[in-house]
């Protein structure tokens, strides 16, 4: 491994067609019945999956819509010897934060288990820097699920249900909003925000399921809103390129489809540090989405929403 390869903008997309997502081995049932169920835990407003790679112990992996390629990113370099990736190369992995990209090793034809389901021919990346050291989770995965299946996240029952996209037919009266994909396979939606009860502002945002925040609005030259007064600087989190600092506050209301949430806790972050997505006004995190039972249907470009038992809880 004499030289570094770069993963451009953290996303090197596998040759996968969204509209031809097919499960690899199971025979799917008729209609919309899920044929694979994975229990998860909710920790710090993040969906945590049980994952094993080779002979590793069970790892705590965050489900992340921002992980827009089939594979697994692991944070702890001590897993390098334990997992023993074959034909690994060195790479650089940029991400959120103001520092340099993280160093890592990567193998392109590995496999891992999510619950009892094996995913084969996957990219597995293990960070070799200490950027993410000390986090309560072990890594992230995303498109391995979202790219192959219609993914239902039931927060009431703490279950992920995987459906065959070709056979998934929800009830006609089920509420949904369109999702789109721009330069990569990260889902975008249109929302409306009312900062202080005076004016509704349409915004284009993308979904970052790995974010524990409810809403993050991006501060930039062409931002569509004015910052509220009396905001305090706070540490918002750590990305692959270092720490992210910004402000914390609230917005009067946040409209997602036909749903309107009040007094929504909101982070305000510098766009050049927090986000690599051009044209984004903000980010929706799991702190907001976990108030719904949701279904990500990438094949049809829909996000189904049903309020759950957490919907009316105050934001804090």
Task: Explain what you see.
With 316 residues, the chain is mainly beta. It folds into two domains: 142 residues, Cathepsin D, subunit A, domain 1; 132 residues, Beta Barrel (Cathepsin D, subunit A, domain 1). It is built from four helices and 23 strands. The strands form three sheets. Strands 4-5-10-6-9-8 form a six-stranded mixed beta barrel. It has a six-stranded antiparallel beta sheet with strand order 2-12-11-22-23-13, with no helix packed on it. The chain has a six-stranded mixed beta barrel with strand order 15-16-21-17-20-19. It starts with a strand and ends in a 9-residue tail after the last strand.
* Helix percent band: under 10%
| Main beta-sheet strand count, sense and barrel state | 6 strands, mixed, barrel
| Span between termini | 47 Å
CATH topology of the largest domain: Cathepsin D, subunit A, domain 1
H-E order: EEEEEEHEEEEHEEEEEEEEEEHEHEE
The order of strands across the largest sheet is 4-5-10-6-9-8
Number of strands: 23
Name given to the CATH homologous superfamily of the largest domain: Acid Proteases
* Percent of residues in beta strands: over 45%
Return Rg in Å: 19 Å
What low-confidence regions span 5 or more consecutive residues with pLDDT below 50?
1-32
Shape, principal axes of CA atoms: globular
CATH C-level name of the largest domain: Mainly Beta
Number of helical stretches of at least 4 residues: 4
User: How many domains is the backbone divided into?
Assistant: 2
**Average pLDDT reading:** 84
Structural class: mainly beta
Q: Can you tell me the CATH architecture of the largest domain?
A: Beta Barrel
